[in-house]
Amino acid sequence: MYKEFGLKDAIFSKVKDKDRAIKAGASDGPGFGDDIKCYGNSDKNFENILCQKRRNYEKEIRNTEDKFSMEDYE
C-alpha cells in the first residue's frame, strides 16, 4: 500500500485487542486480526487478500472490501 501512495498517506491504526493483532492459520496466511486476511490454495500460494470491515483495529485499513494483490499487501 505504501508503494502506490507513499508513507505520508499511510493509515496508522492501533489494535483494539492485542490477542487478535496478527493471525496466521493452516489455510490462511499472515493477517491483521479479522481486518485483512490473506488466503490461497493448498500449496500456500497466498494469491488472494481480502480486506473486511474494521473489527480489530481502531481505523479501517482500506476503504474497500475488494480483494487486492500480494504485491499491494507487501
UniProtKB/TrEMBL annotation:
Domain of life: Eukaryota
Record protein name field: 112_t:CDS:1
